[in-house]
Amino acid sequence: MRIRPKLVLTFSAIFILAFSSSSYAAHITIQSSLLDSGISEEQSTSILEEIGTSIGIVSAIIGIIAVCVVFWVSARIANPISTLSEKLKSQEIGKKLRNIEIKRESIDKDDEINEVIYTINSMINRLNDLEEKKDVFLSMVTHELKTPASTIVGFSKVLLNSKMAGELNPEQKKSIETMKRNATRLEDLIGDLLDSRKLGLSKMKFAYANVDITKLVEYILHNNKNITDEKNIEFVNSTKETIFATTDESRLEQVYNNLIRNAVDFVPKEGGKIEIGVKGDDNKIICYVKDNGIGISKEKQKELFNQFYQVDSSLQRKHGGTGLGLYISKGIIEALGGKIWVESELGKGASIYFSIPKIKEERSNNENIGN
User: Fold this and answer.
1) Are the CB atoms for 257 and 222 separated by under 8 Å?
2) CB-based contacts of 273: which residues, under 8 Å, 6+ apart?
3) Which of 15, 36, 277, 346 could be a cystine partner for 238, CB 3.0 to 4.6 Å?
4) CB–CB of 311/299 below 8 Å?
5) Per the confidence metrics, is the pTM higher than 0.90?
6) pLDDT tens-place string over residues 242-293
7) Spatial CB neighbours of 188, under 8 Å, sequence gap ≥ 6
């Protein structure tokens, strides 16, 4: 049972004031009556002392009863409300909501607190039902969009291949490259939506293998060079050691790509720099992506890895995206047994770190199956 200091003090203060006032009034009344009755002063004093002793004993008894009442009220009202609040706060954003269950005695089955719990659970069930319908709709839409997007990308590659479709003039080539780039972006957005749904349903699959992380980071640097070179961004790998880990290589690459492409949007147009790397630390590895961009305020850092969160959510924001990249990265890293965090100050760039174990000890059945 929790002790509620404010509740105890409130009830105690009310009891002391009420009892002191009534005791004082009784004392004056008795004293006045004794004087009017003609009893001597010594007898009056003796009687008043006896009455005072009796009042003291009664006060102690009433005080104990008052404290018991306070604890009873706390157990029946304050504690269940506090427990209800804690259980609501423990619900995780982006995951299926759980019904609230609070163990209470049978005497309380029909009280107001249980009515509140019933109402909250009804709302949770409705929200979960809406979430399931949203997932079904999202699955259907993403599937229908993915097929034509992949077809556009495939035929764009064919048209850009001079050996297959013949030579194109500069204007034609530029138009097809624009079409291919936007179709690829659409594919990426669809992929983010699908991955977000898999994470929400805990259905993302992982394929573990012994991975040379140092070579993987070098490959990631080479694979993203075209994006950084296009914006004249200095892109470097600061890894200085050879590191191996038992993990999912493709998912780790996906996280790095998300973080790099996020950093590309926020570095300055001139003098932009992105640094990637990895280092060993006992039984885990620590990876990072650092940039010299605009930075992130302490307030916004708390929300950074939430689903659909945008640092600038206004309609006029300069940077695109769905706000799913960092949410997906967090989900993948946590599924791999690690954690992800950010260190940043406004105007001083941002550094996003994530750590994963060199060997993940426990794996679910889904984690052993490839995509």
Assistant:
1) no
2) 233, 234, 235, 236, 267, 291, 292
3) 277
4) no
5) no
6) 999 999 999 999 999 999 988 998 898 888 999 999 998 888 999 999 999 9
7) none
Q: What dihedral angle (degrees, nearest 10) is formed by the CA atoms of 54, 60, 62, 67?
A: 180
**Helical segments of 37-169, H only:** 41-73, 79-89, 112-160, 162-165
Hey, what CATH class is 209-368 in?
Answer: alpha beta
Q: Strand pairing partners for 51? A: none
In this predicted structure, the answer to whether residue 365 has a pLDDT above a threshold of 60 is: no
* C-alpha span between 264 and 274 (Å, rounded): 8
Per the CB < 8 A criterion, the answer to whether 91 and 21 are in contact is no
Q: What's the CA gap between 298 and 223, in Å, rounded? A: 32
| Percent over 70 (pLDDT), the chain | 73
Tokens read off for 278: 């990895």
Q: Is the pLDDT of residue 357 over 70?
A: yes
Domain ranges of the chain: 209-368
CA 163 – CA 149 distance, rounded (Å): 23
User: Under DSSP, is residue 332 helix (H, G, I), strand (E, B) or coil?
Assistant: helix
Q: Could you give phi then psi for residue 148, rounded to 5 degrees?
A: -65, -35
